[in-house]
Amino acid sequence: MNYTPNGIYTAVVTPFTAQDEFDEDAFRRVINFQIDSGIHGLLVIGGSGEFVSLTPSERQRVVEVAVDQTADRVPVLVGALAPGTREVQETARQADKAGASAVLVLPSYYIKASPQGIFEHFARVADSSSLPIVAYNNAGRTGINLDVALLEKLATISSIVSLKECERDLGVVAAKIAAVGERIAILSGDDDLGFPTFLLGSPGGIFMSANLVPALHRKLFDAVKKGDIHSAREAHYALLPLVEALYTANHPGPLKNAMDFIGYPVGAARAPLQGAETEQLELAKKALDHIAEITIRLSNS
Question: Could you give the domains of the chain?
């Protein structure tokens, strides 16, 4: 279990055909594009991958295809985002059998478990497979916050190697890195906070907009590592309009629509999610055009 995610991971979308079926060919093309663009790893069937809209058999197939197509070129992190412990355990076992690198696990949500119940949720998942666990703190989605006290307790579970952090308060993020950063890698989970979170000491991030601009995310990350804060800041501010345009209601619907702009169509998001408004797509296209210019400039710098 010598695995700790670091660098830029793309929270990959799950392509669908016009008949609303998993589009395996499109998925394989997207995976190759991501790896060729220098991404460090992939998250499949996460939020951007529409975990909640996939059937159990579809989830299993998406993971199998991802592992096969990736062919050990980069790690594959698998979303296990169900609210119930037993379903998460089953997803983890299937991911382990398929050859995935790790699983992404939310605290048990909707049912409002106690802190001890949340701890036991993670502990039981850890006991169910040999895969490392990336805990996922996303209180905006779950209503449950993995605060410093609970995170320190979770750090005693040896299988938990990392945290995908969607806390918007950078002071709290810094406190978590200070408290458990030597034991658990605190990864940025919000595309617009990657840059400042890296500066705080985060070793990487898991981002939805990397579906569209993986090279920019990689250049931003590499610039921070090299101490080239000017270039990293330039990439950060180029990224913000794209995130603002797409990360809205109906996510990942607008993101999937925007994939057409880069030549990797992935179909629509499943109901009840809707596609992007015309104005959203216009803003996204403008942002992508600007990012293309910035990426070329950074490549030549």
Answer: 7-214 (3.20.20.70)
